[in-house]
Each structure stands twice: as C-alpha cells, then as structure tokens.
Amino acid sequence: MTIGGSNSKASINKKLAEYTGKLIDAVELNHIDLNDYKLPIYSIDTENDAGFPEDLIKLNAEVESSDGFVVSLAEHNGAYSAAFKNMFDWLSRMDAKVWRNKPMLLLSTSPGARGGQSVMDLALSRFPRNGGNIIGHTTFPSFNENFVNGEIVNPELREKISGLASELSERL
Ligand SMILES: Cc1cc2nc3c(=O)[nH]c(=O)nc-3n(C[C@H](O)[C@H](O)[C@H](O)COP(=O)(O)O)c2cc1C
C-alpha cells in the first residue's frame, strides 16, 4: 500500500510514494489517496454519536489486508498535514496499532531543502508506538529540482530510493 500524506490533488508526496511503490517487484499496489476517504474532523462526540464512518471502516480493512506500506508525509508547519493527522487519529480509534507491525518505508518530501525533516522526526518517534515497523526512511529535499517528469534526476536520491524499495521487497 502506498500513502501520500496529503489531500492535495497534485501531491508531491503521493507522487514519491507511488514512484517508490512501483520499484517493488511483483506486488499488487494499492495507492491510497486521502481524497477518496471522506472523514469528518475527528471528535469524540462525532464518534460517540455516529460511530466509525463507513470510509474509515473501508480504509482500516485495506490497511489490515496490506503486507506493507510506503508512506510519504507532507509537512505543514513542521507537522503532519491536517488531512493525514485526521486519518491517523480515526484509524487509531479502530486499532491503536494502526500499522500492525508490517514493514514500512517512511518518506517525506517538500519543495524546500529540508524535505520535511520535522514531520519525519515526528513520525519516526511516534509511528513505532502505533505498530509502525519502519525498516527504512529518508527525506527527499527540493522535490521540484530532484524529481522531473516522473523521474528522480538526482543520482544519490535515485540510488537511495531504489535501495529502500529493494529492502522492502525483501521483507514482503
Ligand atoms: C499550511 C502549509 C504549511 C506548510 N509548512 C511547511 C513546512 O513546515 N515545511 C515545509 O517544508 N513545507 C511546508 N509547506 C509546503 C509544503 O511542503 C508543500 O505545499 C508540499 O507540496 C506539500 O506536499 P504535498 O504536495 O504532498 O501536499 C507548507 C504548505 C502549507 C500549505
């Protein structure tokens, strides 16, 4: 399963997650677009009044049936995008071990030179508490310079991403 941690239709994180997923041999990829899951902003009152939203139940089942994850996080003001955090909060109500200890590559990218380092740090410390089994991770700086026409043009980053994809392939 690939997840771009943003609800932008043209999400660069979605592009990076999908690109990385395609490097993994012989797997059926399920590309998650947060826009396809209509989740109200999490509130304990909404949960108590209406229960789990239908799209959440669907998403949780897809997470459950996945063998592993490529997650690429967008950084908004140094943290998760609101759309990703909302999805994560809802999922954690269904199962606190959101990621089920299945192998995960964790990526982050932004147009800036830090490539989402702050959200990466946040997720590296948090995800393991939610069943995250992060087998490899990297930030991907300056997305627009380093990813052109669907290809990684920076040789070091290309090597890094393909190495991570191979590591995940071996764990699936
Ligand atoms: C509200 C908001 C806050 C942002 N904060 C950051 C930030 O803290 N660090 C950063 O590198 N980029 C920041 N950006 C720029 C995003 O990295 C950029 O919009 C990127 O395209 C987001 O990824 P996405 O295309 O996958 O949504 C911010 C963008 C928005 C809209």
3D architecture notes:
The chain is of the alpha/beta class. The protein has one domain: 3-Layer(aba) Sandwich (Rossmann fold), CATH 3.40.50. 43% of the residues lie in helices and 20% in strands. It contains seven helices and nine strands. Helix 3 packs across helix 4. It is globular, with a radius of gyration of 15 Å. The model has no long low-confidence stretch (mean pLDDT 97). It binds flavin mononucleotide. The site of flavin mononucleotide (FMN) has 16 residues, from helix 1 and strand 4.
SSE map:
Blueprint: E1 2-5, H1 12-22, E2 31-32, H2 44-50, H3 54-65, E3 69-73, E4 75-76, E5 79-80, H4 82-94, E6 103-109, H5 117-126, E7 133-140, H6 143-146, E8 147-148, E9 151-152, H7 155-171
Parallel strand pairs: 1-2, 1-3, 3-6, 6-7
Antiparallel strand pairs: 4-5, 8-9
Helix pairs in contact: 3-4
Bound molecules: flavin mononucleotide.
